[in-house]
Write a structure and sequence with these properties.
Layout lengths: L7 E3 L12 E3 L2 E8 L4 H13 L1 H4 L8 E2 L5 E2 L7 E6 L1 H13 L3 E6 L8 H9 L8 E9 H7 L4 E2 L2
Parallel strand pairs: 3-6
Antiparallel strand pairs: 1-2, 3-8, 4-5, 6-9, 7-8
Helix pairs in contact: 3-5
Length: 159
């Protein structure tokens, strides 16, 4: 099995030829930071929601559409690895401030969103609270690799 580091992915996988191309390295990083006290279902839900925002604000993160050998078309996905980290409530607040101070693309998920059932109510719940009072349970951040690393300083990779 081939391994890859957190900033590298392998090109040519699934190209039908059975060969590997040179590694593709990205100057950018996509990362999700989750609060460490979430239930497993909450971690999955938060990750899915915060990642969904990145492709709309930064279309360059979306790759080309997929197709299988039979010609069945599939939707394009994010083109590079998504790294998932965890940290305390305080770490999330610090990372949020760091991301905003660096003007990085950021998506947030607050604890209030677990009790809403639609996009309108989600947006209203976030809008009702000031930036410094958000009860963050997760966030996604995208930008230059070194800037994202600084935002996540102190967080640990999700187990």
């Amino acid at each position: 099995m081939r391994t890859r580091d957190e900033n590298e992915t392998w090109a040519g996988v699934g190209n039908g030829a059975g060969t590997q191309s040179a590694p593709v390295r990205f100057d950018t990083k996509i990362a999700v930071l989750l609060r460490d006290d979430l239930e497993p279902w909450q971690r999955l839900n938060v990750t899915a929601f915060v990642i969904s925002g990145l492709g709309t604000a930064s279309p360059e993160v979306i790759g080309e559409p997929y197709a299988d050998a039979d010609g069945t078309a599939y939707l394009p996905m994010i083109r590079q690895p998504v790294l998932v980290f965890e940290g305390t409530k305080e770490m999330l607040t610090t990372a949020h401030h760091r991301a905003l101070s660096r003007s990085l693309q950021t998506a947030v998920f607050t604890s209030d969103l677990f009790s809403t059932g639609n996009d309108r109510d989600n947006r209203a719940a976030v809008q009702a609270v000031g930036r410094d009072q958000l009860d963050l349970v997760g966030m996604a951040v995208y930008g230059p690799r070194n800037a994202v690393d600084k935002v996540l300083k102190g967080a640990r990779m999700h187990p």
